[in-house]
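Incident review: delayed structure delivery

Summary: a single-chain prediction request sat in the queue longer than the usual turnaround. Root cause was a stuck worker, restarted by the on-call engineer. No data loss occurred. The affected request and its eventual output are reproduced below so the record is complete for anyone auditing the incident later.

Affected input:
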Amino acid sequence: MPGEPPRPTHLDDQGRARMVDVGGKAVTRREAIASGRIAMAPATAAAIRGGAVVKGDVLAVARVAAIQAAKETSRTIPLCHTIPLDAVEVELEVGESWVVARATARTSARTGVEMEALVAVSAALLTIWDMVKGIDRTLEIGPIRLEEKRGGRSGEWIRASAPPQEPGGGAR
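Output delivered after worker restart:
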């Protein structure tokens, strides 16, 4: 009815959590892009750039962690559907005192792939944290956010605001 708030999709009539039935939806090509950042001391970023972190290649391990996490999203997020991933791409950019992770997830499915992209970014950033925590206690993660999505009933969505900027003008 007009004027009534929309009914929560993940609750049944008794208010219990449920997985949404997407069986009647069409299979469509879907894509989502998420991003996030981890701030750190400049010396830590330099160690990552220079391959001088004693635990190994931080960026390679973070990339693999992101891809693996995307594949396991439905095991981590309770009401997420298990979907077949066609691709997961992970980009990592090391700045003066930060690393930005950007994940693109693609599928042909009945439901979106946003959570897979967000989980991939989260896992990449947490992996970086784990690999450098012994040399830097100033680490801070955030923001993590959806940047774009395509496909499905709602079509295309692109975040209107540009990513936040570092002091001095660098991209976060």
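Verification: The two ends are 43 Å apart (CA to CA).
Action items: add queue-age alerting; document worker restart procedure.
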